[in-house]
Amino acid sequence: MLRRRPALYALGVLVLLAIWAVLSAFYPPVILPSPLEAGAALIGLARSGALFREVGITLARILIAFSVSAAAGSALGILAGLQPRLYPLLKPAVDLALSAPPISWLVLALIWFGTGSATPIFTVIMVATPVVFANAYQGVRAVDRELVGMARAYGARGRQLVEDVYLPALSSYLFAGLSVAGSLAVRTAVMGELLGSDSGVGNALALARIYLETPQVFAWVGVTVALLAALEGLLIRPLQRRAEAWRWKA
Question: Measuring CA to CA, which residue among 128, 131, 112, 130 is closest to residue 196?
Fold first, then answer.
C-alpha cells in the first residue's frame, strides 16, 4: 500500500491538471489560463532571471523567520514544560499571538517597519513562534512521569535528563509543530510581501495581478507551493529523521 501512495498522489495531480485544462478552455487567459500557458509564463520568468531573484529574496526571509521561530518557540516551550510556574507567565502572550489574525501583525509591522524585509520576517515570527511553543510544551508535559522518575533514580540529571528522556519523547510533538509553522511561514511571508514589501514572490504576485498577467499569477502561486514543499521535504523532514535516529539504534 505504501508503494502505491506516490502513484496515487501523481494520479491526483494529473486529475487536477486535467480539470484545470478543461475549465480553461471556456475562459480567456486573463481569467483562467491553461496549464501550458502558466508553464510558459514560469519559463519566461526563469529566462528573465526574475524567478530566481524573487525566490531567493523570499527564501532568505522565510529561513530567517522560521529559524528564529523554531529556536525561540521550542526553547520557551521546553522551558515552560520543565518549569510549570513559568507557563502562566508566558501563556497570555502565547494566547494573544495565537488568537490575533496574521493580517493584524502585518498591519503593525507596516506601521513600525514600513515596506521591506523586516515586515514579512516580523509577521512570520509572530505567527509561527506560538505554534512551535504550544507543541513543544505539550510534548514535555506528555512525557511519562514514571520514566522521568526512573531516569532520576539511575542518576540522570540536567542536560542528560533532557537529552535522553525528554527530547526523544517530545520529538513527534515538536516536529508536528515545526511542520505547521513551516507552512504558516511560507504563506505568511508571501502574504506579507504581497501587501507590504517591494520585493519577493509576494510582490511579484501583486504586480502580476495589477498588470493582469494572470498566467504569471498562476506561475507564482505554483512557486509558492514549491517553496512550501521544499521547506518541508528538504529541511524539516531531514531534521526529523536525524533527531529520531535513536529509534533505529535499538
Answer: 112
Assess if residue 21 is contained within a domain.
no
Q: Is 151 exposed, middle or buried (0-12, 13-18, 19+ CB in 10 A)?
A: middle
Residue numbers of the domain that contains 124 = 60-244
Question: Could you state, in chain order, the average pLDDT of each consecutive group of 10 residues for the chain (250 residues)?
Answer: 69 91 92 94 95 96 96 92 86 89 92 90 95 91 68 60 69 88 94 90 94 95 93 85 60
Q: Under 8 Å CB-to-CB from 212, ≥6 apart: which residues?
A: 30
Here the cell at position 89 is 507567565
Contact 24, 32 (CB under 8 A): yes
Determine the distance from the C-alpha atom of residue 139 to the mean position of all C-alpha atoms in its chain, rounded to a whole number: 19
| Residue from 105, 129, 130 nearest 195 by CA | 105
Cell of 45: 520568468
CATH of residue 160's domain is 1.10.3720.10
* Residue in 198, 225, 174, 170 with CA at minimum distance from that of residue 42: 225
User: To 5 degrees, how large is the angle CA 60–CA 119–CA 203?
Assistant: 70
